[in-house]
Design goal:
By secondary structure, this protein is α/β, with parallel strands linked by helices. It has helices at 18-30, 33-45, 61-72, 89-99, 111-123, 135-145, 153-160, 164-173, 182-193, 208-231, 247-258, 270-278, 286-289, 308-313, 332-338, 368-371, 378-397, 411-424, 434-441; strands at 52-56, 76-80, 102-104, 128-131, 176-179, 201-203, 239-243, 262-266, 282-283, 295-298, 318-322, 341-346, 349-354, 357-362, 406-407. The longest helix has 24 residues, at 208-231. The structure holds nicotinamide-adenine-dinucleotide. Nicotinamide-adenine-dinucleotide binds next to helix 9, helix 10 and helix 11.
């Protein structure tokens, strides 16, 4: 077990990087007008005064702006990473030095350190949690069920050292949680269905101002950006295979086509596959796409979408990566057993030699847009994190009445965020006339 004290105020790479982190966080802030407005209101109204919030999010410049907003609202914060490769060490340093956030995150941290950092965020004793992949809530649920064998060793060690009363106090203190991503929401809904959720959870991903923009335009652009930064490959003229045509997949397929690629989509849902077909993409099973692709990217939230038979059929030099939440979409364990030679050929690029052919895996199969690039642009995270900030406030304001289940923020919040974003972009829209309001609410007019 890594010797890191659970109550250490922070555990980061280097506090000396704080100036650079501050400069870059301020750069992101320029593109986050909606969050800025919420921050100003929070500063006046202090909706999170005295609350402790533990967050497990990608430690990026955009997240820094969310953390600063929660601090402005009066919260004390612990922050750990939701992925071992996505941390920006300078941002971590800035949050510690200039905003008093307890950050536990180091880019490239090993498995054990990653979970030690999660344990530190839990040991903070949160009233609220914010997750990107349900890691904190999962650990709390496993703790309350006494399923300590299912906890990662550093978290297990922490829980085992607690008395039953202390464990109950840790879980019982949490008044609510927010969840950022599709995969996390799926897990939390499964937990809720089994009656295991002990506090209300807001599925931020289910807000329309989140998934329609972050997943589609954010993932679309930043995934392509990550691939290009890792490889410097020319997209034009290449064949790109996109696994999954959900919000992320369609965003990436759209951008790959825009960059001049021939795009093939693989899917398992007939209606979604039909949309891809009618959007003008080739649609086929992965087994047929495998020998054709120059670049493969999985965005499904599912496991082993690219596996042994697909790797075996790929052409020499095929590039494979993932932009779905967990690093399980590519069966890299099997690829490792198939390979006779395995070596790093460039930052974020590992080459596997299989039957004399080279397969190049990017970013260890982890979210490529965060591993080799900077994640989503700030302008799109402006809306996602406006939802996160308002969700935290919503949980506190409605604490007495909210059911212990997975909730979506009301449509009025979505509309407010969209209106603020439109205004910041200088776009205005029409409003319904009284006559139109009546017409839309009637069944007998105009027939
Ligand atoms: N890279 C990022 O920054 C980022 C951002 C947002 C979401 N995500 C993650 O990306 C993943 C996808 O999110 P989404 O919002 O697009 O989800 P989604 O549910 O809208 O889409 C996923 C699609 O994958 C398809 N699918 C499932 N199994 C498949 C298989 N074996 N082969 C082909 N297709 C398959 C599903 O039918 C579905 O259409 C999730 O894990 C999510 O958490 C990543």
């Amino acid at each position: 077990m890594t010797a890191i004290a659970l109550d250490a105020p922070h555990h980061i790479r280097d506090l000396g990087l704080a100036d650079e982190g501050k400069r870059r966080t301020e750069w992101a802030e320029r593109s986050m007008p909606v969050l800025r407005q919420i921050r100003e209101r929070f500063r006046r109204e202090q909706p999170l005064a005295g609350r402790r919030v533990s967050c497990c999010l990608h430690v990026t410049t955009e997240t820094a702006n969310l953390m600063i907003t929660l601090r402005a609202a009066g919260a004390d914060i612990a922050l750990c990473a939701s992925n071992p490769l996505s941390t920006q060490d300078d941002v971590a340093a800035h949050l510690v030095r200039d905003h008093g956030v307890h950050v536990y995150a180091i880019k490239g941290e090993d498995h054990e350190t990653y979970y030690t950092h999660l344990a530190q965020a839990l040991a903070f004793g949160p009233d609220l949690t914010q997750d990107d992949g349900a890691d904190l809530v999962s650990a709390l649920v496993m703790t309350s069920l006494g399923r300590l064998d299912d906890l990662a060793p550093p978290i297990r060690a922490m829980v085992e050292a607690m008395s039953p009363e202390e464990r109950e106090a840790l879980v019982g203190r949490v008044r609510g949680s927010t969840e950022e991503t599709t995969t996390g929401v799926i897990r939390l809904k499964a937990m809720a269905q089994q009656g295991l959720v002990r506090f209300p959870i807001i599925a931020v991903n289910d807000s329309r101002t989140k998934h329609l923009f972050d997943n589609r335009y954010g993932t679309g652009q930043s995934t392509l950006d990550g691939i290009i930064r890792a490889t410097n490959m020319l997209i034009a003229g290449s064949t790109v295979v996109v696994a999954g045509y959900g919000w992320c997949g369609r965003g990436f397929a759209m951008r790959a086509r825009g960059a001049g690629a021939t795009v093939i989509v693989t899917e398992v849902e007939p209606v979604v596959a039909l949309e891809a077909k009618m959007d003008g993409f080739e649609v086929m099973p992965m087994a047929e796409a495998a020998p054709r692709g120059d670049l493969f990217c999985t965005l499904t939230g599912n496991m082993h979408v690219i596996r042994r038979e697909h790797f075996a059929a790929m052409k020499d030099g095929a590039i494979v990566c993932n932009s779905g939440h967990f690093n399980v979409e590519l069966d890299l364990e099997t690829l490792a057993t198939m390979a006779t030679v395995r070596r790093a050929v460039r930052d974020f690029v590992e080459e596997f030699e299989v039957n004399g052919k080279r397969i190049l895996v990017l970013g260890e199969g982890r979210l490529i847009n965060l591993a080799s690039a900077e994640g989503h642009p700030a302008s799109v995270m402006d809306m996602s994190f406006a939802n996160q900030a308002l969700a935290a406030e919503y949980l506190v304001v409605n604490e007495a009445t909210l059911e212990r289940k997975v909730h979506t923020l009301p449509a009025s919040v979505d509309n407010e965020i969209a209106s603020l974003k439109l205004a910041s972009m200088g776009a205005r829209i029409d409003t319904l006339t009284p006559e139109q309001v009546t017409y839309l609410a009637s069944w007998d007019a105009g027939t």
